[in-house]
Amino acid sequence: MISLRTTVLLVAAVALGSGPSYGQTYDGPRTPDGRPDLSGIWQVLGSAAWDLEAHNAQDGIPAGFSVVDGGTIPYTADALNQRDRNRANRLTDDPVRRCYLPGVPRITYMPWPFRIVQTPDHLVLSYEYAHALRIVYTDGSPHPLPNDFWMGDSRGHWEGDALVIDTTHFNGQTWLDASGNHHSNELHVVERLTPVTPYHINYEVTLEDPQTYTRPWTMRMPIYKRMEEGLRLLDYDCVDHLLNALVEDGEAR
Amino acid sequence: MTETTTKRRSLLIGVALGLLLSPYAATAQGFDPAKTPWGDPDLRGHYLPGPYQALETPTSEWTPPEGTNRGQGAAFSRFFEPDPDAPARPRPARPDGPTIIDPPTGQVPFQPWAAEQRNEIMARQEQLEHLDPRVKCLPAAFPRAHLPVGYNTYQIEQGPGFVLMLYEWNHHSRYIPLDGSEHIDPALRLGMGDSRGRWDGNTLVVETRNFTDNTWPVGHGAPPEGAPGSALTTGHGVFHSGNLRVVEEFTFLDADTIQYTATLEDPEVFSQPWTLRYNALQRAPEDHMLFEYACHEGNGRNLSLMTGTAVEAGRVHPIP
């Protein structure tokens, strides 16, 4: 027999696990055209940048829960072997260690802030890390020429209060984290940014890549508003640091 | 406050007054540009760089190699030539005179030691420490980010209280608050500096400081082989200290052309503030978009040659 108290706890647990606890309606600032106003400086907290899956702490790296629905990324057998090779050689093979642009969605959850400037037909996302830029068109335009890009090509639209960004045209040379999780140039990323309060956005990303995964899979995490007064993006000029390491420290010999 | 800082501060105040009284402070106010819904002159849109124009008045100390399309400022044409296999052709007509309008000599007013340093830099372009920072994919800084290279275009965003300028070259951007706020802590350094802006009539005035000291504030393309710095009209080898301060003015000459005026002040390197003026921003066609310019990502072989190491070997200290 289940006691009343147990029932209440069960109901509460289900409620907590089933969605945002702040209520379903966004009541934060809006733009003149009625969209949620995402302008400002944002940042993800957590350790997804090191490893999207559950991982224990290592020297200088915090432990973390998995941000992947179901816990693990559904790799094909070959792709899983590649991930393990990447992981074993991550100190030299991670493209970010060579200061290459991190790609999408990795740039979002690296531990640097980014600024969103929003207009009626596009958003500009500028990142402190390596002064990376994304321009997300929300004017209904299609993906462009058959070029490929480190950061892909991003086209967005609004579904109610959620900004949905469709990104394709990747070059296949980026990783998803510092632990060797990877994808091919067939990657198709759909990010869903649902503002819940003025201070946080639910960030949900579905990745599809038949060359690498057995099925589409989803990661999710909050993006938080940086509230410090007078805050602005500073510099992390990766290339500058790399040049110093190459020339002065001779690390790469 | 030490005596030195007092002196420096007096100097800075003097320079600032000089800038205010400069004949270049207000020009081209005749054209009345479109306004944003919140009433500011509307800079929003896409722009291409303006035509080639020499930075400095040429000196006669050096003659370009014969039979080449290189010479004083010629390197620029390599990047502007749409077909790299096409035979050399005359470059577009230059507007009269150099880009530098003050001092009247049209030369960068280096202090004597700094002029020597510039020649040293240009004579040792094979050494990594002297190489054009832009070739190393370091930031362009200012005014260089607004001087012409064939592979840079611009996008300007604007909202109440800010202007955001995007630069295709090496995906740089700068957010310019217009809210009267102070510059950030002098201890903090940025490759593109810390910019604050204000409106002077229809002119956007931007002051930028907090620069790093490892960029060149002017320059185009690549220098002609063997050319001494003093012979160049490309602005190459012009270095600066961390005390560089740049005041820029953006003024519409007509609906499609923005005149750009920049005054550079660096008491450690230059003998006086100096000013260049250039029609730097030409409105782009309707369908223009910024493409990804991944500079460093394609620069591995250059870096390997320059450093004698392999970028592909990576680094061993953890970065996330």
In short:
The complex is a heterodimer of chains A (253) and B (320). Chain A is α+β, with helices and mostly antiparallel strands and 253 residues long. Chain A has one domain: Lipocalin (Beta Barrel).
What does this structure look like?
The complex is a heterodimer of chains A (253) and B (320). The longest helix of chain A is centred in the N-terminal third of the chain and has 14 residues, at 4-17. In chain A, strands 4-3-2-1-9-8-7-6-5 form a nine-stranded antiparallel beta sheet. Chain A has helices spanning 4-17, 77-88, 90-93, 106-109, 238-249, and strands at residues 40-43, 114-118, 122-127, 133-137, 153-159, 162-168, 188-197, 200-208, 217-225. Chain A has 253 residues and is α+β, with helices and mostly antiparallel strands. Chain A contains five helices and nine strands, in the order H-E-H-H-H-E-E-E-E-E-E-E-E-H. In chain A, 18% of the residues lie in helices and 25% in strands. Chain A has a single domain (36-228), classed as Calycin beta-barrel core domain (Lipocalin, Beta Barrel). Chain B is an alpha+beta fold and 320 residues long. Chain B has one domain (3-308). Helix content of chain B is 14%, strand content 22%. Chain B has helices at 3-21, 75-80, 112-123, 300-307, and strands at residues 45-49, 100-102, 154-159, 162-167, 172-177, 194-200, 203-209, 245-254, 257-265, 274-283. In chain B, strands 1, 2, 3, 4, 5, 6, 7, 8, 9 and 10 form a ten-stranded antiparallel beta sheet that branches. Classes of the chains: A alpha+beta (253), B alpha+beta (320). Chains A and B meet through helix 3 and helix 5 of A and strand 3, strand 4, strand 5 and helix 4 of B.
